[in-house]
């Protein structure tokens, strides 16, 4: 009876020891790092039937190295424009632009007023006034002087005047001015007055130019002496 108890107790102790040893072994196995079978330097042996064992060749894992610094940003060179060389020969197929001729003529302004005559009329008898733009003319005749109206449209005959000798005999020295004619130029509408000056023995003609864009009622006055010399007082 005692032997059976001892045997049972021994078995229980052995079982407990075996269980303790197993637990200790399992704990060591969990904490122990298994060495790679190829760590001894022997060539790997590949067994196609044993996919879980053996030393299959491994693709080495790339070692991560630090990223090299970015290269310095080099400025892009500026495109330098190089002009094309000028051809030494000029193409003949390019038309030459000839500038239009400049009109050097100055346009003449159109005037509504009647222009002055460019020259004094020259009747068949000798005339006294040499002024080219005169609006009046006196010419020598057999009996004395002939007056002519002058305008933009031409010449018209005016009053006839006695000779200086007849005027001197007719008019005494008492009168300062003797009126010989008073009227109007039919071509210009300007007044005309002809006087004899006994003290000076001269004839005076007072009239006006034909109107222009630049002047209106401009006086034209001159005297004629016994020697037919003309002296302008206003012109």
| Span of the ends, CA to CA | 185 Å
Structural class: alpha+beta
Output the helix-strand order. Answer: HEEEHEEEEE
Sheet of most strands: 5 strands, antiparallel
Q: Tally the helices.
A: 2
Shape: rod-shaped
Q: Unreliable runs, pLDDT <50, ≥5 residues? A: 33-39, 46-59, 90-95, 98-122
Helix content: 10-25%
Rounded to an integer, what's the Rg over CA atoms?
Answer: 71 Å
Average residue pLDDT: 73
> How many β strands by DSSP?
8
Order of strands across the main sheet:
4-5-6-7-8
Strand percentage lies at 15-25%
SSE layout:
Blueprint lengths: L1 H30 L104 E5 L3 E8 L2 E9 L1 H7 L7 E7 L6 E7 L4 E7 L10 E7 L4 E5 L1
Antiparallel strand pairs: 1-2, 2-3, 4-5, 5-6, 6-7, 7-8
What do you see in this structure?
The protein has 235 residues and is of the alpha+beta class. The chain is 16% helix and 23% strand. The strands form two sheets. The protein has a five-stranded antiparallel beta sheet, with no helix packed on it. Strands 1-2-3 form a three-stranded antiparallel beta sheet. It starts with a helix and ends with a strand.
